[in-house]
Write a structure and sequence with these properties.
Number of strands: 10
Shape: elongated
Distance between the termini: 44 Å
Largest sheet: 3 strands, mixed
Order of helices and strands: EEEHEEEHEEHHHEEH
Mean pLDDT: 85
Length: 208
């Protein structure tokens, strides 16, 4: 009976310069039958920075490497057809001064955005009008409405982002996390397509 190997490529792999990636690093696999050698330890790709900090391994290249070792192995693939390799280049962590300045800039910018929004929609006049409709008296500073409203903005942002400090209230992803996920998925797909186009151009140039 012919042994069968089923591969499922990983979407993305983090690697270091000089690291040698094996079959186990690039995909999940299952073997049905007897195989003399551990397939997961077969080297496939050595990470370098010659072509930048991004590389793509296609399922065809992986199958070619495995077939070179096991020509009689029945190999089948499911899932993604490529694995995106992202090379981690050691960098310097930002200092406390830079972190403080960026945090202060974001705090001031978000505060100005909220105040400009309230000015555009005439929130002060709305509060005055609501206070007059409820009490029958005019009040230029209806704090009984403005204070709960201000606290409600902060509470609403906490609930919207589903996080307070490092604590999450539940496992449901926040809208921001979903947007970041979709954005990262789009970047990864773009990088894969770009690397494939570069490989095709390189093949045409070498053959021409």
């Amino acid at each position: 009976m012919t042994s069968q190997l089923v591969l499922r490529m990983k979407k993305k792999v983090q690697a270091r310069p000089g690291q040698r990636l094996t079959v186990r690093d690039l995909c999940r696999y299952a073997v049905n039958g007897e195989v003399d050698e551990d397939i997961g330890r077969i080297p496939v790709y050595e990470v370098t920075l010659d072509q930048g900090n991004v590389a793509v391994i296609d399922i065809v290249d992986l199958i070619a490497v495995i077939s070179g070792r096991f020509p009689d192995l029945d190999i089948r693939s499911v899932g993604p057809a490529q694995t995106l390799i992202e090379v981690n280049i050691p960098g310097k962590k930002p200092g406390w001064l830079a972190t403080t300045l960026v945090s202060l800039l974001l705090f001031i910018g978000s505060g100005l955005a909220i105040m400009n929004f309230h000015t555009d929609v005439s929130m002060q006049e709305v509060h005055n009008r609501i206070y007059y409709l409820v009490t029958g008296t005019h009040e230029n500073r209806p704090l009984v409405l403005q204070i709960p409203y201000s606290l409600g903005i902060g509470a609403g942002m906490i609930l919207f982002f589903n996080r307070f400090m490092r604590r999450k209230f539940n496992e449901e992803p926040s809208p921001m996390e979903l947007e970041v996920f979709l954005y990262q998925e789009s970047i990864d797909q773009y990088l894969i397509n770009d690397e494939k186009q570069k490989a095709r151009r390189s093949t045409r140039d070498s053959s021409g």
